[in-house]
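Supplementary Methods. Inverse-folding protocol.

Structures were first reduced to a discrete structure-token string of length 200. This string, shown here, constituted the complete conditioning input.
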């Protein structure tokens, strides 16, 4: 019989994933302010000491959770060159991902909204939103250079508008899921931006 014992690194990664998932569940169920290291450990089946060992303090746990929840929200974009096609795929994929709002996606949206008033979360989300806007600006600028996007389109303005629309749809989906028909909306919003940006 083969030895299937996990390595220390595998055990560490498993524990960290379980702790982050527990933290996300607690954020979704009880809000950010009620999150404590002890509650996270209890939910995940670990001691508070393990949570402290992995993250040190609540602020570091929240920062790691914020970064983890933002990873891979729209799969399938890696390797695509900047341009109108990537921008439209991102819009379609982002709204499509809202159809299956799992605990990590819900936690992300709640943390993002909380960042407006939480000084410890604000820098993480400011940085992430700026990186998102930068990607969107790159897509518009590349589309203009390729002749696919109308030359009068302002990359910075489009980036702010797209990000605002996507986050707003996400929050509506979180608060009133029945009001957001993801399948219909992903196509109509993508078409809206295609028409708005496409060069004549």
């Amino acid at each position: 019989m083969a030895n299937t014992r996990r390595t220390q690194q595998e055990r560490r990664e498993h524990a960290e994933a379980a702790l982050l998932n527990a933290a996300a569940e607690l954020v979704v169920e009880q809000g950010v302010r009620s999150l404590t290291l002890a509650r996270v450990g209890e939910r995940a089946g670990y001691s508070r000491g393990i949570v402290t060992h992995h993250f040190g303090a609540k602020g570091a746990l929240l920062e790691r959770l914020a970064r983890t929840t933002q990873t891979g929200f729209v799969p399938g974009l890696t390797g695509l060159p900047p341009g109108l096609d990537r921008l439209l795929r991102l819009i379609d994929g982002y709204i499509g991902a809202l159809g299956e709002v799992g605990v990590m996606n819900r936690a992300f949206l709640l943390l993002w909204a909380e960042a407006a008033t939480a000084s410890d979360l604000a820098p993480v989300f400011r940085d992430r939103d700026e990186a998102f806007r930068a990607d969107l600006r790159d897509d518009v600028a590349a589309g203009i250079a390729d002749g696919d996007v109308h030359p009068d389109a302002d990359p910075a303005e489009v980036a702010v508008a797209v990000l605002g629309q996507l986050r707003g749809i996400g929050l509506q989906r979180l608060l009133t899921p029945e009001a957001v028909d993801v399948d219909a909306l992903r196509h109509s919003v993508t078409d809206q931006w295609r028409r708005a940006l496409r060069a004549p």
